Fold this protein.
Amino acid sequence: MNTTINSSIIGQLEQAENFPGCWKSELVPIPLFDNLKLNITFIGFNPVSDKKFISEADEAIRQFLSLGNSYRFEISKEIVENYIDSLAREESTDSEHYSRKIQNEKEIWNYVHPIEIIVTRRPTHIRDMYIIVACECEWEKEYGLQLVFKHGKKLTRVSEQDGHVTESDAYNLNDNEE
């Protein structure tokens, strides 16, 4: 079986040795994060059984790579909400948390560190393509942060890194309950 595939947007991806459904690109500049270079990984892709994956992934990646700093600043509020919710769940009154008060929503990005881009399908009967930005962040050191973009176009979920692309999947809800 071939151990590389080609994306018309990001070039060649190499299959992970021990994970046959995982394909990783070289570093790609990501405009949303000031052209920070990150690997883009296809997860859950079988070239034999999913002939449309690459073309649909390419479209999602194309959409995602068209998002720039202005969109990142537009979504700052959602990231701040995650930060505030995380502090509310925190049982300790550790003063370190209070020293990180955010004066301006855009400042939240000083505490968010993207580490990888993942492209995957929703593992349900609704097989939409999603892009997950896996991040480290200052307020959730154990689980990190994930930013989920449906079809690469729009932020649809901010959560700890749980691998779920929708709240319905994460909490076993019907899609219409979301």
